[in-house]
Write a structure and sequence with these properties.
- This protein is α+β, with helices and mostly antiparallel strands and about 80 residues long.
- It has a single domain, classed as Roll (Nuclear Transport Factor 2, Chain: A), CATH 3.10.450.
- Helix content is about 25%, strand content about 45%.
- The chain has a five-stranded mixed beta sheet with strand order 1-5-4-3-2.
- The protein starts with a strand and ends with a strand.
- The model has no long low-confidence stretch (mean pLDDT about 95).
């Protein structure tokens, strides 16, 4: 069973500004195209969804994934 996702305030704001839905974020976790470790324990997951290229930054916690930010990298 996948860990539940929790969105911090920054992530929710970024998603609203960039018109990224929770469904799109969930799709990134279902089958990411690429996953990379970053500094400070953060992880970036990437997924192409239609014409969009979504990047989600998150932290793994024992019982959840904390979504920190979401960006449309399409251009």
């Amino acid at each position: 069973m996948a860990k539940p996702l929790r969105y911090d305030r920054h992530a929710k704001r970024r998603m609203k500004w960039r018109n990224i839905s929770e469904r799109e974020v969930e799709a990134v976790f279902d089958e990411p195209d690429k996953v990379e470790q970053t500094g400070h324990g953060r992880i970036n997951a990437f997924k192409r969804i239609g014409a969009r290229s979504i990047k989600v930054t998150y932290k793994e916690h024992p019982h959840e994934r904390l979504i920190i930010s979401a960006v449309d990298k399409s251009g």
